[in-house]
Structures are given as C-alpha cells and as structure tokens.
Predict the structure.
Amino acid sequence: MNQTAVSVRGLTKRYGDVRAVDGIDLEIGTGEVFAILGPNGAGKSTTVEIMEGYRERDAGEVSVLGIDPRHPTRLWRSRVGIVLQTANDTAELTVRETVRHFAAMYPSARDPDEVIAKVGLTEKARTRLRQLSGGQRRRVDVALGVIGHPELLFLDEPTTGFDPEARRQFWELIKGLADDGTTIVLTTHYLDEAEALADRVAVIAKGRIVAEGDPATLGGRASAQATVSWLEDGGRRHVETHTPTAAVLDLTARFDGEVPELTVTRPSLEDVYLRLINPEDEEGRK
Amino acid sequence: MTETVASPHAGAVDGAGIGRLPSVVASGWNRAAVETKMFFREKDAVIFTFSFPIILLVIFGSIFQGELDGHITVAQLYTAGLIGAGVMSASFQNLGVGIAVDRDDGTLKRLAGTPMPRSAYFVGKILSVLALSVLEVAILLAVGVVMYDLNLPSAPGTWITFAWVFVLGITASSLLGIAVSSLPRSSKSATAVISMPFVVLQFISGVFIPFTVLPEWLMRIASFFPLRWMCQGFRSVFLGEAGASLELAKSYELGRVALVLGAWIVGGLVLCLTTFRWKGRRDG
C-alpha cells in the first residue's frame, strides 16, 4: 500500500514568542511505523497533538486520513486511536469495565477481552486501575487506543518510565499491531525505541526536522567515516577513514601481527542524533 | 487478533461495512452508568456529598427543638433548607469538583479523542447527578420523618411544586457547577475553590439561618443566586400555608422562584457554552 495516512506541510505553532513548531513537513504512508524523535521541548508532542485534533495550529496544512484534524468528525475519530502521554482517569473502574466502556463508543470495536489479552492484562482484568503499576496502566492506555480498531494509532512517548523488560514487552505489542496493518505514529526520546520499532524516523530539534529517514542510515550514519583506534608508544591513536579494512591491514603489517587494543567503530545512532540536535557542538560557537 | 468485522479498514474509508456510531442517548447512558459506578466506589466523595446535609439536619434538629409561630417545627424548616443544600451539593459541588478532577486526570482529554459525542459527557453527568439527588432527598426526608416527626405533605399539588422546584433547581445548579469547574487551577485546589462559595451561599440563603434575620445587603446578594429560591420553593412544600407568613414577602413567591431559577438555567447554559474547557491549563 502506498497511500498517504498523514500529510503535513509547513506546520507552525507559536506559544507567545516561542516557535514550538517552526515549519514542519511530514509524509507518513499507510501501514508505516513512523517515529518522531527529539529532546524534551523540541515540539514533538505539539506536532502530534495538532495531528490528533487536540491543538490549533498557526499555519500550515495538515491532513490525517484525508481529513483536516482542525475539524474532526465522529467518524474520523473512530478511525484514529490515541494513546495519551499521561492519564489517570477511571481509577475506580476495573480494567475490563474501562475497556468495555470505551468499546461502546466505537462503531466497530474490537472484542474487549481479546484486547485485554493482547496487552497482557488478562490476569488483571478484574483489578481496579488505581491498583495497577505504571507499566500496566500504560497497557490499559494502549488497549483504549486500539479498542476502536483504528487505522492510525498515535503513541506519545509510550514507554517513559518503563523498566527495560516492560519496554521490550511493549515493543512486541506495538510490532504486533503494526503487523496487523495499523499505521503507527510514535514520539519518543529513546533512540533504541525508534530503532527497534520504526520504519522511518524524523528527528525534530527546536521545532524543525533536522533529519529524516531509515534509522539505519539516518544522518549519513551508514556512510559515515569509521574510526580506527589503537595503542602506540603509550598513547591512543585515532584514524578516521572510509576504508577501515585497509587501515587495519596497514596496521597489521606495521605491527607485524596483533595491533594493541584495536577498535573499529562507526557512529552509533546516538552519536548521529546528538550531532543532529546540537549542531553547535560541531560548528563551534555561533 | 480476529477481525470482528470483515475488512474494517477498507470499509471505514467510504463509511460502508462498519457499524453505526452510537447515538447520543446510548452514549450518555453509557457515561451515566460509569459515572455513577465510579462515584459510589470513591468512598470519600460519597461520604462528603451525602453526609454533610444529613449530619447538619441531625445537629440542627437536636439543638433547636420546638415550634415557630404557626405550628411550624424547626425540623420542617431545616428539612426544607437542607434539601435545597443537598440538591446543590449533589449538583453544583459534585460537578464543580468532579469536572475539575476530570480535566486534571485526563478524562476529558481522553474522551475528546474518542468518537463519543461531546454532549454525552454532560448527559452522563446530569443523569448521575439526578440519581444522587433523588437518593439524597430520600435520605433527608427519611431522617426527618423518623427522627423529627416531619409530616410529609399529602396534597398532590404540593408534590408537583416539589417536582418543578427540584428539576429547575438541579438544572440551574448543575449548569453552574459545570461553569465553575473551569475556575480551579488543578484538581488539588478544586474542593477548596468550589466549597467556599457554596458554604457562604448556604449561610446567606436561609439554609442554616432564617433568611429574614439577615441584613438587607446580604439578602440582596443571596437573592441573586439560585439557592435562596430553591430553599424558598422547598419551604412552600414542607411548611405549607402556615409558613408563608414567615417569608420576607409574606408569600412564597413561587412565580419568582421559577423565574429566577429559569434565568439561571439560561445564564448557566450560556456560561457553560462559552467558558467550558476540554483541556487542563498545563495542556495549553
């Protein structure tokens, strides 16, 4: 499928004098898992909330499933699932009561018990939300996000505050939804999350997109120079090169065998990311 | 996951092949059931809402015994006043605090993101307030009858008056409660912000202290607000003809009661439509 699920052109949003979103363009295809990556305050949540129809924009064109979210219809709402960043509502209801309550709002909801099973809360179905852990609570949020059988699911920083195991389980859940054909737009400030889940990533910094693409090649990561490093005369030596294999062969010849403490590294996604969101560090003071 | 509907994704695009969107009535009923269930599970809120007027009736009924002129018992007087206060507590205070909490804990934001018609939220709130108020009034009347020999009126016309004062009063107070829910900055301050004006109103509207002993400027202030008129309407029900002479105008002024409560319904509706926020302050 090559249809467009979300299309954003020249999106701008100001809070007072601050340009929270400063001219963002995005194109997200149907069935794609798209991650919006960026530090806190970069404009991720504002961008997503405009797409969700929660926030007004100052300028730009936005189309989500063919509708301008500025004027959401009930039918459109039934096709879009939203997992909020923080929510503590229906604390006195049980998991099953909550999921059933929301199921009744949609024209073609999924089976509540199946959704509860899918998010791994079957054993907690009779527990009140107040008594759930943070991770379990987020699973309820996901259950409510997908109960209406959405074509498009928004996840705003879904795993903030998770322990590593809970995060892995959550990723499996999201991958399962993506395999079902749901288009997923998620914001995160975790690089490993974007790398694990997303087909495509956009990095936002100071309200602008500074890079966009496959997480494996983001910011020229795949073609970046590798660093060959070794120990010589009591100090570390570094060489940056496009041909690290040749460099290692040279060193092997020079040392006539084992090179002391040899390493060959390429920039991690984190290196690329930090360079993208802090270009000043590379360019020096402006 | 098994698909409950054949190819819902394709169907949803052209609107065919998917179920129908639930109606406002069904959605409102869905909300009312959940609201009422949640209310009764929140034990502190239940106690706060119900016990307040009942405890006061017990206290006042025990302190002040005997009759006023015209064979009106003090219990009758306080039952009428506290039904007014009880209805306002179940509607104004309950909604004012409850909606501020809903705004703060994400309830409103989440509901706004679903296809639920927004009016269903208010239908649910009002139906649940109605249920609570009926229960509150029933308990107050039972306490009055059992403990303080309250004589319930027998004339059907009196109960018709009771019904319309109850409905107009609860509607006006609910709309006001919805409107004031936007005032507290967070759910933490909501109880204090909403309770203060309510307590003041009870003192100046003839709930605790007979309206006629108030200084004129306080009477004027109280006459702006619905509680004074609700209490006056309820007094006409429970004190009967004999009590009319105790009123400021030597009559219950039922026409005026209807007029003021009706005006508050219109004003409250306008206030709600213009000031209601679906988002919390930190949501921008």
